[in-house]
Protein 1
Amino acid sequence: MDPISIQLWLLIALLIVAISIAILTVKIFDHLRRQDAKSQAKKILDDARKEIESQRRESALQSKEEALQRKAEVEKELTVIREKLHAEDRDLEKRKRLLESRAEELQKQERMVEGNQRKISEKMAVVKQQEEQLERTLDEQSQALHQVSGLSREQATTQLLQLLDRELEQETGSIILKHEKKIAEIADQKSREMLLTAMQRYAASHTSETTTSTVDIPNDEMKGRIIGREGRNIRAIEKATGVDVIIDDTPGVVIVSAFDPVRREIARMALDRLIADGRIHPSRIEEVVRETEKKIDDHIQKDGQQATDEVGVHGLHERIVHLLGRLHFRTSYSQNVLRHSVEVAFLSGMIAEDMGFDRHLATRCGLLHDIGKAADHDAEGGHPKIGADLLKRYGEGPEVVHAALGHHDDIRLEYPYTMICATADACSASRPGARRESLDRYVKRMEELEEIATGFKGVQQAFAVQAGREVRVMVSSTQTTDETAAKICRDIAAEYERQLTYPGEIKVTVLRETRATEFAH
């Protein structure tokens, strides 16, 4: 063989040996890996067994703890139940003893009642014997009376009945007068309590306004711009708003005067906007006045709706709600008419509820009784008639219509809500702080009241008290009698009604005193 073949065979032999060694090595590694995996698996199984055993022991311990806790809770509940049962047993024992004592007491009372019945039976027997004896005595006396008087039994009975009739009539009259006086006192007291309770349960604030409003201006130059060239701006303002704009030497203000408070408020707000804007000319004035009128109209509607919501009166016509809102800008003797109407509504409802009438209907009558004041600038007649016509036109019931018509004068008993409304109206108008007058007007009114009263023959002095709601008149005892004093009182009240206008009523009290004086020497 040549050396190349020998080398080739050596290489092949080496290659075979290397492959055998590699195969052997892989088998050895595989065997070792298997051994290692088995040992790891065994270890994992052992750990799992240990963990399972540990969890089993923990579960057993936890179960024992829960069982012990549950046992303690059950024992606690059983203790509470036992205590309740013991308490109930004690309560039942007490009741049992109480019932036994009551039973003994009832037995005693039964024995007493039986004894009383025996005594009553004995007394009734005695009384029956006495009645029989009395009847025999009366018969004997009656026969003797007939023999003495010479009257028959029928005639004597007739005379006796007539005598009893006259006596009963006198007694009945005195009893009726006594009860009438007592009932009148009770009714007067109850009515005062109702009125005082209603007035104490409700109190409302009052706002006062005058017939003029002031508008602040930043400087005197603005006065000239408000007047305009040859007065065209001020004429445009007065024409658009229907008010009088007064510009005098008073610094920093412009006066707006109008009898209609709505027009006056429109003019005041429009002037405020024009002064703030700075552009003052006729076309701008008309534009601002139109916008202000729309704003005031919305404000009026909102005020009316708020008033109806406040007193809980719903279902009113939209025009009636708008007229209610206009009352916010109307005052009567410095009292805001809308707040006055709301107060009368509350008072009427309270009075009606105390008297057993319909509270909601009375509240509705009170809220709408002065609605005519919102339209008396546009219609002829007094506000009661105007208000009644408006309410009838917009579908209100006869009670509400008559409350507006008659809350001052025409009060009929078939409409009790008119009387309730008139009472609430007088309470709201006359309570302290509701209305006020200027000092000069107040003094003049007091003087007029006293002057009218002293003008009657026999009157010595007259005093106006309680802010003119009462006049006390002193008359001469020599020139007048009790009858003429009553006539003077009536004549003075009639004269007040004829000559004066006033809210509410004026009470006239005439006092006549007789004095006798002697001297001992």
Protein 2
Amino acid sequence: MKRSPITSNNSNNLADANQPWSPADSAALYCVEDWGNQYFGVTPQGNLAVKVPFNQSDVELPLMDIVAGMRERGVDMPCILRIENLLGHRLSILNQAFEKAIRESNYRNVYRGVFPIKVNQQSHVVDEISRFGQSHNHGLEAGSKAELIIALSHTQSLDSLIICNGYKDEEFVELGLYARKIGVRCFFVIESLAELPIILAVSQRLSIEPLLGVRIRLSTTVDGHWQQDSGDQSIFGLSTNALLTIVDQLKTADMLHCLQLLHCHLGSQIPNIRNIRVGVQEACRFYGGLVKEGADMGYLDLGGGLAVDYDGSRSNSTHSKNYGLNEYCVDIVETVMESLDPLDIPHPVIVTESGRATAAYSSLLLFNVLDVRHHRAAPIPESLLASAKQNTQETLSPINSLLHVCEHFADMRLQECYNDALFYREEVRELFKLGQASMRERGLAENLALSILNRIVSEMPKIDRIPTEIEDLPTLLADIYYGNFSLFQSLPDIWAIDQVFPIMPIHRLQEKPTNDAILADLTCDCDGKIDQFVGPNGLQPTLPLHELNEDEEYYLGVFLVGAYQETLGDLHNLFGDTNVVSVRIKEDQNFEFVHEFHGDTIGDVLEYVEYDVKNVQEKFRQLAEQAVRAKRISATDRREMLKAFKDSLQGYTYFEKSQ
């Protein structure tokens, strides 16, 4: 989808900040309507608001109202904010879309969704999935014993499913068979030939027949980030020959009737609907083959893959999708019917494992900006510029040469100014290395060169053809905004797989942003930065942001982070879990704090990496006591130091503003 071009300002490209600017301009600049999926919007007052659908109308709540409530309750930044209503709405519309497609296509069976617990294992998320999903018989998918225990404890309807993927040992199988005995539809999906003997042995020992599924490895490949893990390169699933071996072994054991489900997983975040159609068609061929072999089939599990439009482009790019939810459901239903009706095979229960599309929208990361590093030149004294006029070109030193460029900038080509700025700056740097230029002289040369580069950027919009060599100069001179968060803890997919999430300020949107920036986190790591953002003309290397106001916090939000980010986070620099707040918005436009979880303390993260906190305190006490004996500090000093040390162990791992 082609978007309307929006011109963003840059601190180095000083566009007129006094031009008229409205909240609608900010909404367009940050593409809110494109990625927000009608869940987010900008208010006339310039605040970003979450919009929750109710039966009669949508309720719009500014995020700053929630932030104010968090501050009143002592919840510091950074914080994960969950909007419970969105989790329930996503789950509801998924089921409703399939129900509509089934009804309008005269499909002769039902849809049963399952939520993959691995997408977000947090207890209150799974609680909400179970609560909202009960009316739709929405189940859970478990890939480990721990996740199976969660699923068993959250099953509220015997018409819902538990799908067990992953490798399963005897204990895993026992749990699933006991669930089967009490009436839970718990399917073991066989991933490899080694699993079936274990399942059969435990089943025989407990005298409980299992519900079995098989995971087939399709040849269909998909577009997007996971392309190389699809098709023949997929690391999970049975080959055709392995599938036939499973069928033969079940026939020998007189248990082929237990095989009732075919599972396939095309991939995660599939951007192209054509991949889904082709994959479903291939899966149906295997389903028909199993029916022909005599298996008592009834369920077709098409796995995950329903994508989230992170960049709002509505395209088949990696971070987007070229289809809507209704199209996705209709295409699946129609493809199953077109494939199985000619074979006179009854329509199976359609199962999907949509986790990303269910959970992503409900969570966002909020953080405050701590500092900004500008790439701006300090004002050049008139006396220095005057001295440049008194020198002839033949007698110029590198610094005087830079002054000369500053003075005659208007008479020179941008490329020439750029070349001279870099050349003479490098000359001064070399003289500094040789001890022939002072630190102040180097500082002056750096500032003069930066002044020239700033002026080049300001002139670039005025010329028709920008020289190739200076095209990236605005990005190179972008400001760095230091955010109070850890990329590795809260947004690990940005670092690991170059995932793009929408990022924008949540307030001051009635003001025109004047700085182009990249974001840096608190970690001491060069990878702890974000330099790819959603923009009106596609992905862009900088984010338009406002100047910081003194004595006022500046808040940014990272959106669509409800899938995978929390469970994949690590303890880089020992920054732990953030605070978490879960709110429920009411139809009367009020809201309530449903859950409030305080993030890890320093003591918590030390214990995660196997430190004994009491031992740590004792070692510091001994160090302080040695200082008392050596008369470097007093006993009173020691008491204050030990108290500060103990208090720090109970403190938040992130930056805390002084009270």
Protein 3
Amino acid sequence: MNDYSMRTLSICLVLCMVFQANAQLTTRYEQSEFTETATYEEAMNFYRALDEKYDEVSILTHGQTDIGVPLHVVLINTGKEKTPQELSQSGKAVWLINNAIHPGEPDGISASQMFARDLMENKNKYQEELEKVAIAIIPFYNIGGTLNRNSGTRVNQNGPAEYGFRGNSRHYDLNRDFIKSDTRNSQSFQELFHLYDPDLLLDTHVSNGSDYQHVMTLVSSQKDKLGGELGKYIDEVVLPHSFDGMKKRGFDAIPYVNAGRQTPDKGWTQFIDLPRYSTGYAALFHTIGYMSETHMLKTYKQRVESTYALMETMLDFLGEKGEELVELREQTKRSVSNQKEFEISWSVDTSRFTTFMFSGYEPTYVESEISGFTRLKYDRNQPFTKEVEYRNSYKANKVVTAPNYYIIPQQWRRVIDLLELNQVEMSRLEYDSSINVEAYMIADYQTVRNPYEGHYRHFDVEVSAKQINLKFRKGDVLVPVNQWRNRYIVETLEPEAPDSFFAWNFFDAILQQKEHFSSYVFEDHALKILEENPDIKRALDTAKAEDPRLAESANRQLDFIYQRSTHREPEYMRYPIFRIME
């Protein structure tokens, strides 16, 4: 072969390699003319090719998922830091993007692939932002649901051609599992969340519900629940920047449309982001959270483009305000370490609202051809833009004074494990000890009739408190309430909080009485108890006069006496985590 032929062959080989590399970094979304989304393997191969081509990209593994496949993070960082531990010392703002928590809502999967690639291929354009921001992308959080690919379960959604399933491999909705952490996915997420300690979280979704003109709506950490200076900051700085940035990029974004049973032309109330959700969980650790909610009836192309535009908008914000946000979070952490009063439940403040311009379609009511009844139909031939009321202010229903310590008997292992997973500082008793504590008695609670994410949740919990001296054992756990994770500690351990561990059934064994009496045996003994305890006798007489059911039931009266006697087991209805106030 002559020199000319050799040069020609070399050029051809180089061109083939370049073509192959470029093909590897073209997403399935682009190849399919914006109608399909990548499978799990396709997307991971894409990120592996990106990792191989660019030193600034690293693929890290963080724990397992329920399907037996590891949870991955794609870290994009132009500095020397290649691990989250190194990042924590860098002073950079950290942005965590979570995709495919609901794999049937895959907009973020496609948008993240293109966003990561474009950051690398246009480093000069994004150089200033990338010097200040590290980006951690979870390509697929719900891997089990991603592998359960189909084309029918998202019946209300306009594309893509195929997608994953909402439930994970154990049929859990992972965006209800953050605080209770039943799944390995959630446990792995919590581990990586604390390693990266993100300043900003984006969790990508597609909406269900009303029809309207907007492509993108946003759920953010609720300002009053986030609280303090961070709550004020998200309301006055972060959200206005996001809506302005989206408008400049051609998407008139609005707050998430939470209209419920009414049509959105009448306005709506934003829901409170409880810590079962990603944004509510993040707020416990003073991370500003976003859920992007693209509109289900828009084309897949429109939805992916708007998600990409949001990513550009958020990067722009962090490039401009990231240092400010990092410092504000540090101030908040110091402040919360010394905080004593904590709001633990909220209700909407109906007296306060703002307004914004909403672009919708006229709701009409026509006869159903199936049932013959009246049905709702949005008329796209009647678009409108009008000012609507938006209620996003909440007030506290319950405020608690935090103790100096919670003390957790060591047998409540699951609670202790979750506190450890969330890096709560704890210590163990070195000796058996008698300690004066405040104990809660569960005075009342309600329980849902149907299972919810594997649990029969409790709500409307009421407690009474009393001071007692209890014996604790060597190895029992002391949790000081003087650390920046105080919000997590209080909202999980106070039983009246709506997403507390008590509400999620962690302590249901104490709600069942273990010892009982036989009426024919206890009758004579109960008479002696009344003779020796006139206060119980007076209480019984009063209760019989006020409660006909008690007055008409011999067994109820015996139980009334039993429950107030020394025979009643002290653990029954006593919340097994205790408060040390001094």
